[in-house]
Specification:
translocase, ATP-binding, four-stranded antiparallel beta sheet, Alpha-Beta Plaits, six-stranded mixed beta sheet, Rossmann fold, ATP binding, disordered C terminus, alpha/beta, binds adenosine-5'-triphosphate, binds magnesium ion, Daunorubicin resistance protein DrrA family ABC transporter ATP-binding protein, elongated, 2 domains
Length: 318
């Protein structure tokens, strides 16, 4: 039998009577990257803390690296890495000293610790800065050090809580490569993010959280297909033609365009292909409806949300 790297069953967590993680189950296998996607306050970090034994669940159970998070927290902790909002890096130590210290804390001998630090410094291209205090690092370099620190113990499971927030595109891409390589070496990676693009680049599967509940699960392609591929955003030359435009598009595409109330003639409609984009233009043109602006956008996290979140939850944030 193959044991999952992470198996969580019906995890819930309340804070002062408010349920912030609600009956969430998930499974993650060796070498897999699972993207936990959701807006601010969706419950991502809380779930990660529960799986990393930093916070007990109110109910439910989870096994991480084969051990129970409630009854065997020490075994779990020695097999996981945690990076992101919980950086274990000491600002005043150099990058190298941080890595050596962490390796020593994991039980490595002086020599083993030095070797492990050297290996990570090389992998994460930290050679030039390794002798400097961590507080002097740029954001991107600091993230690479955080990630290196979380990998000192060669963890079976790596938790990354919004690893690329605040990074420029170049640093972000470099970090994504490192995360991918880590998974290829067999580490199971649970990654939280608010960015559909990040999940798309990294995660084989995505689990979408909203108000603490799982609202969708699947590959990025599956989720996008359910959203309908891309959307066309149109700004009408005359906002007064919005109703006629929606009716025309419904006839042509069999779908309702959404309008922004008071949005000055802005509407959006899901399109499955370039043929649909052409149909939008033809339909509006044919009806004599002027277009001031038109753009095609890939689905965003918002689109995916809106297509999955139960209607009475729409628009709720925390
Ligand atoms: N210790 C706490 N006490 C009370 N409420 C908390 C606590 N920790 C988290 N919460 C609440 O639980 C909800 C979920 O928080 P969580 O940090 O898990 O969300 P998140 O998905 O990680 O959000 P973000 O994208 O902003 O990091 C939020 O409404 C938050 O205010
Ligand atoms: Mg968070």
């Amino acid at each position: 039998m193959i044991t999952a790297a992470v198996e969580a069953i019906a995890i819930s967590r309340k804070f002062g009577g408010r349920t912030v993680v609600d009956d969430v189950s998930l499974r993650l296998d060796k070498g897999e990257i699972l993207g936990l996607l959701g807006h601010n306050g969706a419950g991502k970090s809380t779930l990660v803390k529960i799986l990393a034994t930093a916070l007990p669940p109110s109910s439910g159970s989870a096994r991480v690296a084969g051990f129970d998070v409630l009854s065997q927290p020490a075994q779990v902790r020695s097999r996981i890495g945690l990076a992101g909002q919980y950086a274990s890096v000491d600002e005043n130590l150099s990058g190298r000293d941080n890595l050596v210290l962490l390796a020593r804390l994991c039980g490595a001998s002086r020599r083993e610790a030095r070797d492990r630090a050297g290996e990570l410094i090389e992998t994460f291209a930290l050679g030039e800065v390794a002798g400097r205090a961590a507080r002097t690092y740029s954001g991107g370099t600091r993230r690479r050090l955080d990630l290196a620190a979380s990998l000192v113990s060669s963890p079976a499971v790596l938790f990354l809580d919004e690893p690329s927030t605040g990074l420029d595109p170049v640093s972000r891409t470099a970090l994504w490569d490192l995360i991918r390589r880590t998974a290829q070496q067999g580490t199971a990676v649970l990654l939280t993010t608010q960015y559909l693009e990040e999940a798309e680049r990294l995660a084989g599967r995505i689990q979408l959280l909203s108000d603490g509940r799982t609202v969708a699960c699947g590959t990025v392609d599956e989720l996008k297909r359910r959203v309908g591929g891309s959307s066309v955003h149109v700004v009408l030359a005359d906002p007064g033609t919005a109703a006629a435009a929606v009716a025309g598009l419904r006839r042509a595409l069999g779908r309702d365009a959404s309008t922004v109330p008071g949005g000055g003639g802005r509407l959006s409609v899901a399109v499955a292909s370039a043929v649909d984009v052409a149909a939008v233009v033809r339909t509006l043109d044919g009806a004599g409806i002027g277009i001031a602006d038109l753009s095609v956008a890939k689905p965003t996290l918002d689109d995916v949300y809106l297509s999955h979140v139960r209607p009475h939850h729409r628009g709720s944030t925390s």
